[in-house]
Specification:
With about 400 residues, this protein is mainly alpha-helical. It is about 60% helix and about 5% strand. Strands 1-2-4-3 form a four-stranded mixed sheet. β1, α15 and β2 form a beta-alpha-beta unit. The longest helix is centred in the C-terminal third of the chain and has 39 residues.
Length: about 400
Amino acid sequence: MNPDIDRLVKFLQSLFPNINSDTLLELLQTNDIQSTVTLLLNDDNEFQDLNTLKSMFPDTDEFVLYESWLNYDDIESSINYLIDYNSKVADLETTNSKSIILPKQKHQNQVKITIQDEQILTQLTEIFPKFNPDSILDVYIKNSKVFDQTVVELSNYADVDQINSRDIFNNQITQLKEMFPNIHTTKLVHYLNNHKTVEETIETLFQLNDSTNQWNGTLNIKDVPKKNTTPEIGFHFDSKRESNITISNQVDIAQDKKHQDDPLYFRRIANDFMRERNNNFMQAANHFSRGQLTGRKSAEYYSELGRNASLKMHLFMEKAADAQLEYNRARHNRDPNVIDLHGLTVKQAKERLELYSNQWALSNTGWLKIITGAGNHSKGKGKLYPAMYSFMTQRKWRTKEGGDGWFFVSQ
């Protein structure tokens, strides 16, 4: 092998130890070093699609962005979901400012409105939320206060989409806001959008409220009580991994008690370290390509910074996964016969499912319920369900169908 090529391959392997030399040689045949590093970073960039979604939907709730990124097989499905979600949020925000105003009817202002009339008018307003209340009153009086006749005339005035699914959706959001005033409207839209019925949405939101005391719509479970006294099958982060991290101005790992149970907090940090890794690796490639001794020394310096940032990135990705799993366990009252993998990547879910199922099988002979969260979406295909089902089948576990987004396994 050409000494220069050999040196270049060794340099790239120092950045990407999981890539074999043959693959690197093949890439270098058609790409310079900067392009090769860019390609390899893109392949190893777990946040690439997420950052694309953030750039496309900068005003979308961060929780919803992460959910749409995790729950769909491809970025096109995530984009379609977010377009639909943002459309519903925008419609919801403008609904209250829109009202249909009918021509003023000629009737005596002296007509007396009784308590019974007020109740009927309230009902009519709920049926026709886009109509101006004064217009509804005019039509009601015009039709001699006959409810059925008033409904018929208002229906004739209504736009084609007056009583359509969008109006039903908005009315359901209003109902949810009354029931869960502590949860932000954008999150209510997301949860309703991801369930088949409003009843399923309410059940999920009640579970969240029950499991997190005063849940505020964020993924923070620091106040969750442990209701189950059964010995737990737990996951404990290997702190030895932290000892290898030497990057300057370190984050004080897991010392921030305010955020240590929040998956989004750790994902944000992991994403920041991913960008730092990418920048340092590209700097290393630029200096290495100069070929001078000083350039090689600079390349080694930036390579070390990039490797340390990469360690930190993976560290916080693992912390995010463990925090998400802990959050999910709290939602199910820490039931040892349930593992909820919703919110994890396929790789994270496989690792934790293998560990948990092995531990579970040591003391259980029944069925373990595996929840993936797939199947609740109107668009796109959930990726966790088929991956986990296939994974457990390959491990020779017996499987049993459950429902949308969950199944059972047993040995």
